[in-house]
From TrEMBL:
A Pfam family of this chain: Spore_GerAC
Subcellular location(s) per record: Membrane
Protein name (Swiss-Prot/TrEMBL): Ger(X)C family spore germination protein
Chief localization: membrane
Presence of the UniProt keyword Calcium in the record: no
InterPro entries, per database record: GerAC_N (IPR057336), Spore_GerAC-like (IPR008844), Spore_GerAC-like_C (IPR046953), Spore_GerAC_C_sf (IPR038501)
KW Membrane (keyword) present: yes
């Protein structure tokens, strides 16, 4: 009897739950794939959306609307008045936020309805636009997929290649409310085309403070221990004289095939100390200087020195801005909780005065297929 009872209970749940929702035919819906939030010159909130058009008689396969509104929820009734079908946010792939919005520390409350709405996808990618959101959302690339899919693929692809963070609504929510880390989101810019420009760093109130280049973003992901399988770094070797010219003859590019990163947190003499030990196995994929200029061991030491300098530059930027995109507060909370709980409400100020050391060990495995 038990299996029969379980089956009947399951059927009852399916019927009950399915009857709770509204059954709206697909042709009567307008499915938003991009939601944009920006401010105009007078600090009016501008909400925009981009929707695919399924009508075969339509000349365009995507429609875009922008309007002034006090909130995202209020904008829905205006969008409903403009679009053919009832607007739904269940399939939004990308949330675009203008830099002007992020320059205000109280902006996060705008997203209240996003997190309250159970149908809103918390896996939507959150992207900062360096410039007007309208430049991006109105862009119609002639030789690329529809803009929502294109933007999503740009972020996902570069995250897989360890060039930008995995910034979804769910991740952003955790970073905004966890005192041991500050938010970081992907950043794009519209020039001739839409391009990824790196990662935007926010303070503990969510206010924009600085931007990281793509290469700095890769270093941040290494410190966060969130690097993916594919990672290529390019940098000059200052110890090699390129003798002038236009071809950057001290440039080196290498693939990182394996990273072993360990960080230890301790508290000593009224100060937090974080010690990173980063071991990388690398393969040279491009070298613009002659092979006989340096030995393998010398090249390993050069890479170690240059990477250490770049990690230190990134850490200095983080401490000067009083932010913690790495999440070192999570380590402090896990391993030095008694000391951390005393400073958790002003953790970024404490981190700015902490001692952070990085040591890099390079194992140069391959110089390429040909000498």
């Amino acid at each position: 009897m038990k299996p029969i009872c379980h089956a009947m209970f399951f059927i009852f749940l399916v019927v009950t739950l399915s009857s709770c929702g509204r059954n709206i035919p697909l042709e009567d819906l307008t499915i938003s794939l991009i939601l944009g939030i920006d401010l105009d010159d007078k600090n009016n909130l501008i909400i925009s959306e981009s929707n695919p058009v399924f009508n075969k008689d339509a000349k365009k396969n995507i429609e875009t609307y922008q309007l002034k509104s006090k909130s995202i929820r209020e904008s829905r009734k205006y969008f409903d008045a403009l679009t053919t079908g009832e607007v739904t946010a269940a399939k939004i792939q990308v949330l675009l936020i203008g830099k002007r919005v992020l320059e205000h520390e109280d902006w996060f409350s705008i997203l209240d309805t996003v997190y309250r709405n159970p149908t809103f996808s918390i896996n939507s990618r959150v992207i900062m636009v360096d410039g007007p959101v309208s430049d991006v959302i109105l862009y119609e690339p002639p030789d690329k997929p529809q803009l929502p899919l294109h933007l999503k693929e740009v972020i996902d692809k570069n995250n897989e290649r360890t060039r930008t963070v995995n910034s979804t609504l769910q991740v952003l929510h955790r970073q905004m409310y966890d005192k041991g880390i500050t938010p970081s989101i992907s950043a794009i810019k519209k020039e001739k085309d839409i391009e990824l420009v790196g990662v935007s760093l926010l303070d503990d109130n969510g206010k924009y403070v600085d931007n990281l280049s793509i290469q700095e973003s890769s270093l941040l992901l290494i410190l966060k221990d969130e690097q993916n399988k594919e990672l290529t770094l390019s940098m000059p070797m200052p110890a090699i004289n390129d003798k002038g010219g236009i071809f950057n003859k001290n440039e080196l590019s290498f693939d990182v095939s394996r990273i072993n990163s360990k960080v230890k947190a301790k508290y000593d003499k009224d100060q937090f100390h974080f010690n990173y030990k980063i071991h990388m196995a690398v393969n040279v994929v491009e070298r613009l200087f002659p092979a006989d200029m340096v030995t393998k061991n010398e090249l390993e030491k050069m890479i170690e020195k240059e990477l250490k300098s770049r990690f230190e530059g990134l850490i200095k930027k983080i401490q000067e801005n009083k932010i913690d995109p790495i999440g070192l507060g999570l380590y402090a909370r896990a391993y030095q909780y008694e000391h951390y709980k005393k400073v958790k409400d002003h953790w970024v100020d404490t981190l700015a005065k902490s001692n952070i050391n990085v040591s890099v060990d390079i194992d140069l495995q391959s110089m390429g297929a040909m000498k």
